What we know:
By secondary structure, this protein is mainly β. Helices cover 5% and strands 29% of the residues. The chain has a 4-stranded antiparallel sheet with strand order 5-43-42-41, with no helix packed on it. Strands 8-9-10-11 form a 4-stranded antiparallel sheet, with no helix packed on it. The longest helix has 11 residues, at 102-112.
Amino acid sequence: xxxxxxxxxxxxxxxxxxxxxxxxxxxxxxxxxxxxxxxxxxxxxxxxxxxxxxxxxxxxxxxxxxxxxxxxxxxxxxxxxxxxxxxxxxxxxxxxxxxxxxxxxxxxxxxxxxxxxxxxxxxxxxxxxxxxxxxxxxxxxxxxxxxxxxxxxxxxxxxxxxxxxxxxxxxxxxxxxxxxxxxxxxxxxxxxxxxxxxxxxxxxxxxxxxxxxxxxxxxxxxxxxxxxxxxxxxxxxxxxxxxxxxxxxxxxxxxxxxxxxxxxxxxxxxxxxxxxxxxxxxxxxxxxxxxxxxxxxxxxxxxxxxxxxxxxxxxxxxxxxxxxxxxxxxxxxxxxxxxxxxxxxxxxxxxxxxxxxxxxxxxxxxxxxxxxxxxxxxxxxxxxxxxxxxxxxxxxxxxxxxxxxxxxxxxxxxxxxxxxxxxxxxxxxxxxxxxxxxxxxxxxxxxxxxxxxxxxxxxxxxxxxxxxxxxxxxxxxxxxxxxxxxxxxxxxxxxxxxxxxxxxxxxxxxxxxxxxxxxxxxxxxxxxxxxxxxxxxxxxxxxxxxxxxxxxxxxxxxxxxxxxxxxxxxxxxxxxxxxxxxxxxxxxxxxxxxxxxxxxxxxxxxxxxxxxxxxxxxxxxxxxxxxxxxxxxxxxxxxxxxxxxxxxxxxxxxxxxxxxxxxxxxxxxxxxxxxxxxxxxxxxxxxxxxxxxxxxxxxxxxxxxxxxxxxxxx
Length: 714
């Protein structure tokens, strides 16, 4: 039973290294029973949720069963928490604090320091994508502005807030910079309990879970923070790119494996230079904040493993290859598993010949030393931004009578790669197969082959052919054929064309760069070995332009449009490019989103169902009189959470008034068992927990934004 003690408002004073931080309503919590293990373990069996995915194995599973298919639709809002980002403070001369609504603070920051903020990207509070943790009756998460928060799990009352004020340093990197996806928890098994998270300006924060005060023994000068940029090549604190955004930040939650805090990073995308910061993965001592090791996702010397995959010594200047999503780990093996991104530039590889290890790879790393144990590269010389968007799922399975400690990794391409997580051996063969060549990008040399799993089959569509085009009616089919006229179609890994008048308009690719599996990833049931995968079916086109050397460009081409043109397109609502159907009709056949249940013991799908009825398509004037099956298309980029009997997922439509809803599917069949309206659209992946005998489901939503918790009525 938790004991809460509310204490007054505390102001933490400024030191020479870190700006002031504000705390509201500190909390004292009686610690749970001490752990016998030499390092922190994670288990959802007691109703807690101690890591981003419930555990460090990436399962997103809890055995709770109070909420089931018979009562799911009876769920009610237990509490709502309005984001503390809506009212923040700004540092003033002499160490003071000016509190005001966020819009007022933003106006003053942009007015006083316009050189720190990217046009069209001032600080916003709307992207509450974090999945909370729950420990001892308290939820912990972070906000889009990098504030850490503790909230009473029963009432939704704010217990403490820590504000590192990262927004005062300006716009973080990436195209959607004002977002954070969660925190990490660690305890020594006694009285020391800590919360860690990264900030948009590239610090790792450590605070007491009980009070929200900085960990005095973590980082320099009692700051409770370490600079994650320190020592990374070409990473300069405060440096900005041509978009006037910071070049490095930490966006996804760290992970604690044994007593190491490990994190990836966000490195500036949309590059106009071949030179970039390498996205090293970094580890720190959980107690002291001392730097433990780095894993070089891009080689840092001529004698490192993988350097021979970088032609023309391009490793010397290339960057990115960062882990921008979440991580998974195995305490017993002492491994942490790194899903890496694409190296500079996402879609143009002329300046980095070769396969480019360790881009678009899964790497098993020794958590004590940072040394590679094994790796698998899913895309050689990546040109499609098919980086790994999410964490691995670790699960023990039995295949043909053989027990395997397995790792399953879903991908943007629609593949599930399954390995023995101890050795790196594929559970089923992975074949190198020839892929299309004939790129018209100057200087590009493509990989002649790419890896294809022989099993499991892809969980969603790959590539675009004429046969894939929508055919609801002959008239609509004719529209689709006309729409793709002049565009290059082809299978997965078809090269992306530069438009050449009279020759090609470009390449239609599927999956799109955002992937068929997204950042929220999959969930796995440790009792059955079934992996549940939400996915999305849509084509896309990548546009290219030649950046201006006056802005410092050192590449011939990059993706998108120049900034002035891009802003113009956004204002006009014309920033999408590619073969567009009239009146918003879809280009390809349905379903447009689905849920797949994959038995990892057999490599076969148990079921696949569309996620949602697809009313936004179905109600189209040209479709509403047709007798169409469920079309999907209501799926969201938020992930799933599993309970004893349910797959819980968020949809964008289909609620009582046509709005967003949370649904429960039967784990065994995929049948929709229940639905509850959401007050606003879902932003984060849900989680579930139990306090005082009551089960809750919590997630971040818009309309505030807010954290909301559902429970059954008393």
